[in-house]
């Protein structure tokens, strides 16, 4: 279960699985992860500090370390898939054609490998909310004024996109060069978006809005491939069932439906 050659990231492991990993690591280190009384001490926190014990509503232990029960929700599937912001101003057109030009190499590279396409898409989609939230946070500090709730909105958007990635990592196995591509694309996009947001927040949000329109299109094509049987409709990952509060017998198709609904919400916000 280690992040080697595309298996699984530690951040998407359940707490029970992390205990096994931590226990194995402690044994390999000669028992460094033990208390003075000789009993093993399981530390599930990134900082090495044991966190509070979280439970579900039914009293059973919460299995996840990458999100908490109060961060879960049920997606609103009543979305308008055809909604489109017609570019009118120069900035609108610049944002629109920038996104359109970036879609072409993505189509060529991934073609119909929609699982890996989604993985790549979400590694980029989680960047704008964090960059925007960070810059608004700094602006609020400099000007001694409130943000109108936008800091939390943008950070929640970034977290939601990150959970999309944690989910699709369970159903796709990206190749080594695709992982390497993530480093390159994210590095370039982060800095480009950072500068764009400093120059014009409106342009930056328009780029996100049009990117989400393209994401909706990609997930719609993903659903078509699932319906045709080209892609196997496997059971939904446990992390997706808990995060979106899906029925226990949900499938990959159900997951793609709620992810697409999330993207439509982000499109409307931006």
UniProtKB/TrEMBL annotation:
Main localization of the protein described in the UniProt heading: mitochondrion
GO biological process: alternative respiration
EC number(s) per entry: 1.10.3.11
Localization per record: Mitochondrion inner membrane
Keyword entries, A-Z: Electron transport, Iron, Membrane, Metal-binding, Mitochondrion, Mitochondrion inner membrane, Oxidoreductase, Respiratory chain, Transit peptide, Transmembrane, Transmembrane helix, Transport
UniProt xrefs under Pfam families: AOX (PF01786)
Catalytic reaction equation(s): 2 a ubiquinol + O2 = 2 a ubiquinone + 2 H2O
Cofactor note text: Binds 2 iron ions per subunit.
Assigned GO CC terms: mitochondrial inner membrane; respiratory chain complex
Source organism, top-level taxon: Eukaryota
GO molecular function, one term: superoxide-generating NADPH oxidase activity
Keyword Membrane: yes
Swiss-Prot/TrEMBL cofactor(s): Fe cation
Bilayer disposition of the protein: Multi-pass membrane protein
Family: Belongs to the alternative oxidase family.
PANTHER family: ALTERNATIVE OXIDASE
Subunit structure: Homodimer; disulfide-linked.
Record's protein name: Ubiquinol oxidase
Record organism: Daucus carota (Wild carrot)
Organism lineage string: Eukaryota, Viridiplantae, Streptophyta, Embryophyta, Tracheophyta
Gene from which the chain derives: AOX1
């Amino acid at each position: 279960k280690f992040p080697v050659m595309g298996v699984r990231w530690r951040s998407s492991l359940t707490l029970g699985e992390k205990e096994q990993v931590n226990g194995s690591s402690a044994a390999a280190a000669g028992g460094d992860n033990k208390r003075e009384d000789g009993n093993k001490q399981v530390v599930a926190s990134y900082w090495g500090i044991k966190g509070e014990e979280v439970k579900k509503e039914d009293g059973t232990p919460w299995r996840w370390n990458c999100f908490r029960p109060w961060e879960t929700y049920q997606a609103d599937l009543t979305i308008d898939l055809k909604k489109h912001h017609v570019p009118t101003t120069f900035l609108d057109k610049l944002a629109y054609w920038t996104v359109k030009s970036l879609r072409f190499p993505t189509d060529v590279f991934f073609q119909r490998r929609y699982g890996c396409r989604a993985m790549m898409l979400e590694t980029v989609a989680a960047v704008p909310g964090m960059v925007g939230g960070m810059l608004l946070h700094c602006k609020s500090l400099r000007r001694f004024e409130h943000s109108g709730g936008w800091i939390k909105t943008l950070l929640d958007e970034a977290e939601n996109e990150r959970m999309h990635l944690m989910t699709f990592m369970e159903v796709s196995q990206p190749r080594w060069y695709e992982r390497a591509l993530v480093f390159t694309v994210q590095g370039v996009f982060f800095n480009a978006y950072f500068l764009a947001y400093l120059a014009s927040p409106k342009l930056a949000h328009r780029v996100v809005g049009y990117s989400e329109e393209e994401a909706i299109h990609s997930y719609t094509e993903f659903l078509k491939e699932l319906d045709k049987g080209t892609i196997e409709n496997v059971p939904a990952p446990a992390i997706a069932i808990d995060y979106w509060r899906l029925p226990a017998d949900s499938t990959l198709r159900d997951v793609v439906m709620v992810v697409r609904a999330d993207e439509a919400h982000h499109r409307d916000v931006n």
